[in-house]
Amino acid sequence: MTSLAIVAVLATCVTSAVVMLRLRSMLGLVMSLTATLSYAIRHVLLATGFDTLHPDELFLYQGTAGLITSAGWMVALWQATVTAAVAVTVVLGRSRRHRRPPPAPTSRYDWSTAALVLTALSALVMVLLSAYYGSPAAAQRALRVSDVNSGFGVLVVLPSAATVACVAWFRRARDEGRNALAPVVLGGVDAMVFYGFGSRAGALAAVIGFALAAADAAGLLRLRRLLRPRALLALVVLVAVVGGGAVGLRSVRDANATRADYSDYSVVRRVSTSLNLTYFDALVLARRDWPARYELRGASDISRGLSAAVPRALWPGKPVDNETGKWFRRTYEPTREGGWPLGAVGEWYVAFGWAGLLSAAAVSGWLAVRLEGLLQRLLGPGVGRSVAALVGLTVFPTGLLTNSPSRALPWLLAPLATARLARLVLPRATRPPAEQRRPALL
């Protein structure tokens, strides 16, 4: 059964990626790849004996082979359901495509002004926070651990919205054949601000978002072109840079913020924790203890996720553990900081069991197609796909999460509103030359 589960997980992950590429579903592709990274790779490492489940002390007195296999089947079922939902939604939508309005012109949004303003505000906020806490390292530790309930964490909306604006500006410049260096530089500033907030995931999302936007603009995200040697080499380099960067950023951040010591970890364990591959380890725990030991949580995590969108300054009594990973770790280690993220598969399983897992997977696939289509109609095909990729990395990693609605505020609603407001306040800044304007329809 172990070998069969490995084959099933790898087959569904590869099939899912191929289907998403063939259907040109950028958001679906990102969901599929993040699920593969978060669950499938770790499953293979554990099932083949390259590592043991983390943390070791929670699995000392029982066999783990059956648990690993069972959790692997959960991942395979999730990937298959998401892929089927995307395919069905695309096929059903093609019959109505001729009735849809054409994509809106991208000049309705002033991405360059939004990126400049939001990045400047982000950098200013980080400078002020560093001065307030005494140093950038002290600010990172406070925002990550010691003063997490100060209310300053809501300011991360600034680099989030700025990153989306920079990626959109970058993609529009590439599509129009203009120089795209300025948004890349600003995006680098936003990545550093993210890291100042202790958000390694935000910094990496910015890097990957630019890489996906560049690859899509160059037409590389097509199955035939991806199989070419140069494309494969570029993919290997990107994986190496992101992987090495993730390990390095994790080490520096933990030395400054959490004071965690991973010197006794093996290389496989260190890479797994740095790249968040241990989502699968948390999923194994959830499979073992829910509902056998703990009751299913129902909609409680959804309500907590929605509460995360409310600033603590407006709601001083807001629950502390707004993310599923935090309360999940407290269940086993009540005094430890941080969390053990479960990802979409685990979150919906501990909420509603197998029915929740299947239903959420189907909704994730449907939402991937619908939301990307909406973004393309609002922003134009190219910018819409690039923004959809970034949204997939940050709002829907591995699929629809219980707190995805609150994540959408900084990563989707805020940048769209800022860019639209900039266009309305400064209409001449993005108005095309007179010879390029369409005559009004009578």
Describe the structure.
This protein has helices spanning 2-23, 26-47, 65-94, 111-133, 136-146, 157-175, 181-196, 200-217, 223-226, 229-256, 267-274, 279-289, 300-307, 324-332, 343-379, 381-394, 404-425. With 442 residues, the protein is mainly alpha-helical. It has one domain. Helix 2 (26-47) packs antiparallel against helix 15. The longest helix has 37 residues, at 343-379. The radius of gyration is 22 Å and the shape is globular.
> Got a strand count?
0
The geometry reads as: globular
Low-confidence stretches: 429-442
**Main sheet specs:** none
Mean pLDDT: 85
Work out the radius of gyration.
Answer: 22 Å
- As a percent range, the share of helical residues equals 55-70%
What is the ordering of alpha helices and beta strands? Answer: HHHHHHHHHHHHHHHHH
Structural class: mainly alpha
Terminal CA distance reads: 68 Å
Number of H/I helices: 17
The total tally of domains equals 1
Strand content: under 5%
